[in-house]
Amino acid sequence: MIGISRYAPYVPRPRLPRSEISRAWGGRAGKGAVAVANYDEDALTMAVEAALGCGVGRVYGGVHFASTSSPYLEKQCASVVATACDLPRELFSADFGGSTRCGVSALLAALRAVQAGAATDVLVTAADVRLASPDSELEGVLGDAAAALVVSDGDDVIAELVDAVSIAEEFTYHWRTDRQQSVQVAGGRFSNLHGYARDLAPAIGAVLQRQGLEPAAIAKLALYSPDTRAAADLAKSLGFASEQLVPSLAPEIGCTGSAEALLLLARALDTAAAGDLILVGGFGEGADVILFRVTAAIDGGRAEVPVQSWIDAGEPLESYEKYLKYRRLVEVDEPTDVVTNVLESKELTQNVRLHGSRCRECGQVQYPVARVCIACEKRECLDDVPIARAGTVFTFTVDHLIANLEHPLPMAVVDADGGGRLYLQVADADTIDIGARVALTYRRLHEGAGNRNYYWKAKPIRA
Amino acid sequence: MSMKNQIAVIGVGCTKFGDLFDQGYEDLICDAAFQAYDDAGIDPAEIEAGYLGTYMPGPSGGKASVSLGDALRLYDRPITRVENYCATGTDAFRNGCMAIASGTYDVVLVLGAEKLKDRGGRGLPRFGHPLLAKGNSAPGLFALAANRYMHTFGVGRETLAKVAVKNHYNGARNPKAHLRSEVTEEKVLAAPMISSPFGLFDCCPTTDGAAAAILCRADLAAKYTDAPIWVKGVGLSVTSGRPYYDPTFDYLGFRSTSNASKQAYDMAGIAASDIDFAEVHDCFTWTEVSNIEDLGFCAKGEAPGWIAEGRTSLSGDLPINPSGGLKSFGHPIGASGVRMIYETTEQLRGNCGERQIADAHLGLAHNVGGPGAVSCVIVLGNEK
Question: Is any Cβ of chain B less than 8 angstroms from the Cβ of A359?
Answer without folding.
Answer: no
